[in-house]
Amino acid sequence: MTDDGTLRLATGLVKWFDPSKGYGFILDDQGGTDILLHGNVLRNFGRSSVADQSRVTVMVQHTKRGVQAAEVVSIDPPPTDGQPPIADLDIEIIEHLDSLPLRPARVKWFDKSKGFGFANIFGHADDVFIHIEVLRHSGFADLAIGEAICLRVVEGPRGLMAAQIAAWDSGLPARDDASSGRSADDGLAHVAE
């Protein structure tokens, strides 16, 4: 808490966050000491990790151990050069990414050292490839097995692939479009082969 017993809004860049340790630090834009970001606070926001250099807004409190984030308000991914994170994603897909629906999914597995993993969209049998650069461009540092996330998915040269990853509660629940005559693949962009 601040001196008057209230929380203070703070914005800054993630200095580092280690999911295996369960914490990291934020460089406060207003200066002063770093802000501790505990994994539990991040999980309450619907995330298990956050990429270094992501811009975060948090409610902070002063404790005997220093300044700590009590609640995450927002996370913006690290700045990019506007280019696709991987070659399989065309610049046109990136420019129209927001037009693709966010699909609720669950992480099948992700290996940070290998740089990729897979997820399954709810109600869709095929695996969706997740590249670590897409993960980083989306503001995540890592994914845990079974973690609930949302994906914007495109059809790549070798199958479905994530073009963007978001927190699990970012997307609307998937609905059954069978009555409307739309296929389950509607909303997928296609990558040139």
Report on this model:
With 193 residues, this protein is mostly beta strands. The chain has helices at 39-44, 91-95, 132-137; strands at residues 8-18, 23-28, 35-38, 55-63, 66-76, 103-111, 116-121, 127-131, 148-156, 159-167, 189-190. The strands form two sheets. Strands 6, 7, 8, 9, 10 and 11 form a six-stranded mixed beta sheet that branches. Strands 3-2-1-4-5 form a five-stranded antiparallel beta sheet. A hairpin with a 2-residue loop joins strand 4 and strand 5.
Features:
193 residues, mainly beta, 6-stranded mixed β-sheet, 5-stranded antiparallel β-sheet, 3 helices, 42% strand, elongated
Oligomer: single chain
Q: Structural class given helices, strands, pairing?
A: mainly beta
The residue fraction in helices comes out at: under 10%
Number of strands: 11
Low-confidence stretches: 174-186
Task: Assign an overall shape.
Answer: elongated
Main beta-sheet strand count, sense and barrel state: 6 strands, mixed
Rg value: 18 Å
Number of helices: 3
In what range is the share of β-strand residues?
35-45%
The overall average pLDDT, rounded, is 83
| N-C termini distance | 55 Å
Order of helices and strands: EEEHEEHEEEHEEE
Give a concise summary:
This protein has 193 residues and is mostly beta strands. The protein contains three helices and eleven strands, in the order βββαββαβββαβββ.
